[in-house]
Amino acid sequence: MSYMQISGIRKTFGTFEALRGIDIDIAKREFVVLLGPSGCGKSTLLRMIAGLEDIDAGDLVIDGERMNDVKASKRGISMVFQSYALYPHKTVRQNMEFGLKVARQPKEERQKRIADAAEILQITPLLDRTPRELSGGQRQRVAIGRAIVREPKVFLFDEPLSNLDASLRLQMRVELARLHKELQATMVYVTHDQVEAMTLADKIVVMRDGVIEQTGAPLDIYRNPVNAFVAGFIGSPSMNLLKARVTAAEGRRVTVDACGIDTEVEVDAPPAVGTEVTLGLRPEHLEPVLEPAAGDTMLDVLACERLGGVSFALTRMPDGQDLTLQLDGNLPTTAGDRLSCRARPGEAHLFNAETGARY
Ligand code: ATP
Prior knowledge:
One of its GO terms (molecular function) is ATP binding. The chain is an alpha+beta fold.
């Protein structure tokens, strides 16, 4: 039995359907990430769980209780916002204490909870400062501390790290993972950051245009995207999605050609020879051929991003399609070069060219 059930949830703003039937089962202590492009409805769903937005249709059940008509403050949920939403004139301690006072917690209990949360978040020395006297990362910790002291059944996070710079984001990501373990709490986390989703989630829910495209463990989604949208959305840099044609088929194994790059793919429902398909090849599953043979497809290198350990070459195929390859960082490849490549066997994905569904 799941701890939190979201079933058939819908939301309409005027005539615009922001959520069109959302179903998610969340286990106790699970870390669920809602991931999707801007405007897909992630924040709206989170706000409905929090009680900040009415639920037009469907049910929200937490720990066996239907929450649709329960007031936000009575749901046992704490939400951490992107903007932190701290009271600027209150100290860190007062910010953390405020919700507990409203909930009429006795003073001793309030102090104990604040001390415990401050300890966990390593902000004890900051308790008497105001938000103005804190760095972005410290403010974020205070916002999380304010959620922790309320000892909620469920934590909600709305892009909590998006205002932080890259190195702080990494640090906070690690801290959030530790916090999740330490608090053993159920968490629902909205982001459009791939890395946050892949590293923090027990389960990722990929959304688009108010519907769920796929739900699953991060690596399952990465390895077995159900359609071309999910395939292109999960992974950075994105999977190459190429126009291709089936040139041979034997049982479940088909050979596919994309402008001279051949690969074999095993699929559940093989399309017939001659079918136009979308071939999915991740940049890391392409290998450069530095000394190509006559007749090999040549790629023009448009740009090469050198990250150190690896480089990403953005290339153009003879038919005008773009193809990104991951290269060893030691290769001197640069814009203007030409190279050929091979798809690593067994790593390709095949999608219906019209519907995008996986074969
Ligand atoms: P982002 O990543 O940009 O925050 P999101 O996936 O969180 O996007 P939502 O904020 O949930 O998206 O919005 C979903 C859709 O609903 C958007 O098209 C948005 O314009 C619309 N929307 C959200 N709130 C309202 C509102 N109060 N009135 C009208 N439309 C709204």
